[in-house]
Structures are given as C-alpha cells and as structure tokens.
Amino acid sequence: MEKEKEIPKRSSSPYLSLTYYCSIFLVFSICIYATITNYIYPLPTTPTINQFVSVNSLNLNDSQISSIKNLGLTPKKPVQIINNDGKKMTIHGRFLHITDLHIDPYYKDGSDFDEMCHRGKSGEAGKYGDAIMGCDSPPLLVDETFKWIRENLIDKIDFIIYTGDSPRHDNDREYPRTQLKITEMNKDISRRFEELAQYNKDGELNPWTCHVSGNNCVWPHQTIAMASDTIRELFSAWKEFIPSYQMHTYLQGAYFFQEIIPNQLAVLSLNSLFWFSNNPLVDDCDTPSDAGYKHFEWLGYVLKEMRARNMKVWLSSHVPPNEKNFDNTCLRKYIVWTHEYRDVIIGGLYGHMNLDHFIPLDSVQAYKSIKKDFKNQFTDSAFSAFEIEEEELGESGLYKALDENFSDGFFKALGGVPSNKVKYMDTLRENLYAPLKGQKKSGEYYERYSVAHVGASVIPTFNPGLRVWEYNITNLEQELQQVKFEPWDKFFAGVEKMVEVQSKYESDDEASISKKKHKKNKKKKNKKKKRDHTFPKPMPKDRPLGPAYIEQTYTPERYVQYYADLDSINKGKKDFGYEIEYSTDDSLYGMASLTVKNWIEYGRKLGKPIKEANADGKKKNKKGKKKKTHGKLDKIWTNYLKNTFVSSDYEHKGYG
Ligand SMILES: *[C@@H]1O[C@H](CO)[C@@H](O)[C@H](O)[C@H]1NC(C)=O
Ligand SMILES: *[C@@H]1O[C@H](CO)[C@@H](O)[C@H](O)[C@H]1NC(C)=O
Ligand SMILES: *[C@@H]1O[C@H](CO)[C@@H](O)[C@H](O)[C@H]1NC(C)=O
C-alpha cells in the first residue's frame, strides 16, 4: 500500500519530521485557541462579536412526527440555539406566509352581498364569509384563522411573514373609513400577531412576524409619503414588531428588516407603496427627491451589508412587482437589484392581488429598458447579447396586453366580486410564461431570472389560503456552530446618517418636483438622467450563487398551500379549518426543490401549449398534420388555474 510506504519515508528525514510535528502542534494550538476564545466570548475584550452558546439538533417524538405529516409537511430534526443572553430559539426549517386579512367589523352573518354584507335580510352572507361574493372578512374568519395557526402551526414554524392589508376596503358610504378606524383595524390585527407569538413556550425568540404595510393599511387609500402622519399611524399599530434601533428609519419610510437567525437570515419588509403607480404621491424612482428613489438607497445599503455579513434574505412587500402595479422606473430597478444580489436574495413574497401565482422577473428586459435612459452607466452583463431580441420592460407584449385589456382599477384590487381574472391569467400565460427562455439563454441556473411569489389571501375573494414554506436545514447545525456575529449598532448609525443626507434632497429638488407635476397622467417617457447610485453594481465574480439558484442551506425545498373550503364550512358539512390544497412536489407541479430553475422550468410547461399553438399558427397549415394535443401540459395549466383561484371554481363560473 502506497500510504504505508510514504510514512516511513517521511519520518526518515529529520527535516520532514520536524515539519510534520510542527504542523500537528500548529493544528493543536489553533484548536486550543479556538476553544479558549469560544469559552471567553463574550468577555468585554471582544464586545462586538457574539457566538451561540449552544447549537443542537433535537429529536422529534412520534406524536410530533405524525402531526407534521398530517399537515403534509416534512418531518426534520429542528435545531435549537441558545444565545449568550440565555434566549432559546428553535429552527424547524419552515415559515408561514399569510396575507390580506381585510377584517370588517361591520360584517353581518345573514345580510346581503349587495350591501357589502353590512345590511339587509336576504340571509346570503355566510357566517365565515363566502368565496367570490365580494365582501370583506368577517371577524369570525379572522378569529378562526389565528386559532387554526395557533393550534396547528405555531410549534412547527420559525417565523411568519405577513404581507399586509389588515383593514376592510373602503366600499360603503354609510361606513366611511377614517384614519382612526384604519388605525384601530391595524392595531386589532397586530395584537393578534402579538398573541400568537406568546403561545410560544419557554420565552423562545421566534416566531417573528414581519408585517408589511399594505395599500389599504393607509389613509387616504394608497397614499403614503415619506415621514408622514400616515407612517406615524402605521408605526403606532406595528411598533412591537419594529426593532427599536430601526424606529427612526421606519418613521421615514415604513420599511425595515428583521434578523431571523443572527448573521444568517433576515426578512426585508419593503414599502412597495413607494413604487406603486397608483400612489398619487409617487412619480418615479429615478428622481432623487422621490420616495421610491430613497427606498432604493436604503435597499442598496441594507443588501450590501447583508452580503458583507454573508447573510441570506427574503424580500417581502404588499404590492407585487409587475408591469402595471409598479412604475416602470421602479420595477426595472427592483429587478436589477434582485438580479445583482442573486448571491443574497432567496426570493420575494407578496399579496394584494388575491391570486395565488408566481411572477418571473427578467433582468434582460429590465437592463434593456434602463440602458435606453442611462446609456453609459453599464458594462455589459452576461446576458446582454439577448437584449437585442428581447422587448424592453414597459414596452413588452405583457405591458401592452395589460394596458389594453385591463383597466387601472383592476390593479388597484378594490375588493368586490372579482371579474376578468381568468382573462388575466390567460394573459400571463401567453405573455409571461410562454416567452420564458431555456437554459441556453438564461444560464445554467436560470440566473437571468428571479421570482416573485403572490400568495392567496385570507379575505375570501376566492377561498381563504395560507402557505407554509419549507427550507433546507440539513447542515444548519454544523454551520451555526461556526457562526460569529456582530451587533448592528454601527450599521444603524450609518443608516441614520444616510437618512439625514436623503432628507436634504427635499429642499434641493423643489424645482424639479413642481415641473413634474404638470406631466402627471400623461404616459411617462423616462427621461435621461445623470449618474444614479441607486443602480446596483454587478455581482462580484467570486461570489457563489445563493439559495435561490443552487441547493444549499436556506434553499426553499417545497411549500404546502392550505385553504378553507368556505362553502362546506358554512353549510356545516365541515368544521372550520384549513386543509391541504396542493404542494409543489405534487405530480402536476413536480418540483423537486424550489430554486429559480425549478420555477422557470415549471413556467415553461405552463406556457408551452400556447407557444406551440402560436408557432403553428404562423406556419401554413400543412395537410395531414394533426393539431397537437397536450394531455399532461393542459392538465398542469388547469390545475394551476384551479389553485390560482384557491379551489373556488371561479374559472368555471363565467366571471371572465
Ligand atoms: C412529544 O414532545 C412534545 C413536545 O416536547 C410533548 O409535548 C409530548 O408530550 C411528547 N409526546 C410523547 C408521546 O412523548
Ligand atoms: C386583448 O384581448 C383580446 C381578446 O382576448 C386579444 O385578442 C388581444 O390580443 C388582447 N390585446 C393584447 C395587446 O394582447
Ligand atoms: C441542503 O443543503 C446542503 C448544504 O447545506 C446540500 O448539501 C444539500 O444538497 C441540500 N439538500 C437539498 C435537498 O437541496
């Protein structure tokens, strides 16, 4: 054996043997040093670095395993962490996404749908609310939803992402929404989340709730400005969830982030109302005085820090990024940030649309649009060769289809009986999913794209829905044992300074603001601008792709979607509860994991029949050539559509 031959050879040379023993000693002393430093932390000599006191995998007992399995979830050993302040937290590798509660204190069981379920005696309005009928959530639905989460999920999840919209819609003249009432409803919902957190035993740290303000959380409806009273009101409702050292920033822009696992995982709560084209106070994201621009400054600042700390982040917000919701200058900026931080960002979670679906975001389209306005600021990216053949964002087929066939009101999601939603999904199929490019044009890991996920709402626009995401914690125990983390004070001092500098823009830019007011409501031509530091630098070449692209710790593995079957529940055929609707590893989804690659490949399956039909249409119909059928692919689409409408059968009811 060669190995045995080598060792005597080595010890025969005194020099080699010295090296040999020296290196053993060196390793040994490093070990001792590591042990000592471990032991010493956190002594005042090194006050800025922390480490977990202990990290251990826990075993699940049989009853825990069966309750996890009953929910369609995957049993895996949780990892328990103890901090040096004695606080415990348990990481299960799961979190909950919940959105759009829209609680309506005026809801009356047995009233009329035509009267917003506030009045009348027709008896139509169900106790728990009714899918598709256009009313807001009865308080009972909200009560029961929180109860179900408490009884079923709270001991299985690490954190909750709530993407907002707590108050009822402004749909009844007899009950106008005042600032006071809106704040009351916001407070009602935030108190419920606080109570949820208390059901956690042993003073554990989690679950955190990351609230996000929604367009109906504010008054007047969808209007929000920097440092306004509106934000103060939001703050008064949600202050328990906003880390104290971020209060100042929150009061400026209603955005903040929460560190979930120290130095490892964070959730960013973005304020998409600053990017929302329906917010009358928003102009664009390329003018330094605009709130949207300032929000990107903050985002850039935070993401850079996350990268420096080697952390991973989920983005979350209320209004999802698409070509009608966001102003184009904001959307393209948002997309290139997610693209250039593909080592850091895991994905984005949104609400507002009430439609369970996903939105692929194309960095090539975004860059094409940006380069038209900012010619010399960008060196070519890996995919710039494809820009020639690609439509630019804001002028794309999707934009045209949305613009032509859907009114602006459609994207405001005002509540009421939903209409035209099948047509909307068909438009996405044709203009968003069908054109998705394959690996050759998207990169080995489809890193050209990023993905935004829109969750089903609790408000019964369709049926109420909830989603539990499961993420990879296979190696978490070993990884956390090595983690050292710094506190954030220095960083936040920097943020405060930045916010101060930002507020100076206000006075400098009055002129350009008043000039812009004139061209409101005209279709905006993106003006050429000078240097703009709210564009990201390209991702450094030596950074490996993050959990969104390559399977690793924090990669989402699957999710389980739950829904409440309101019809059966109201009829007394079922007790109130959420049941499994589908999961992403079901046969008609077939996703082994939830990387961007999995999503784009799935999206291509959704679009393929349309793509081929269009291609066939262009060719001359050859004799004898049969029209292609897509048994399985059509089933995949039909199933997707059913789930988009949360199993309410909306797609067969003739609402368009
Ligand atoms: C399983 O563990 C849970 C949580 O520690 C505990 O409450 C429960 O009693 C245990 N069940 C059994 C059958 O041991
Ligand atoms: C709008 O909808 C109609 C009917 O579905 C369709 O023929 C048309 O192509 C759509 N417009 C665009 C720009 O896609
Ligand atoms: C989970 O992450 C580990 C690395 O932490 C990786 O080796 C493994 O392949 C991942 N598993 C899955 C199913 O993605």
Describe it for me?
The protein has 656 residues and is α/β, with parallel strands linked by helices. It has one domain. It is 38% helix and 13% strand. The chain contains 20 helices and 17 strands. A six-stranded mixed sheet has the order 7-6-5-14-16-17, covered by helices on one side. A six-stranded mixed sheet has the order 8-9-10-11-13-12, sandwiched between helices. The chain has a three-stranded antiparallel sheet with strand order 2-3-4, with helices on one face. α11 packs antiparallel against α13. It is globular. The termini are far apart. The structure holds 2-acetamido-2-deoxy-beta-D-glucopyranose (NAG) (3 copies). The site of one 2-acetamido-2-deoxy-beta-D-glucopyranose has 4 residues, from α11. Its EC number is 3.6.1.10. Belongs to the endopolyphosphatase PPN1 family. Keywords: Glycoprotein, Hydrolase, Membrane, Signal-anchor, Transmembrane, Transmembrane helix, Vacuole. Catalyzes the hydrolysis of inorganic polyphosphate (polyP) chains of many hundreds of phosphate residues into shorter lengths. One of its GO terms (cellular component) is fungal-type vacuole.
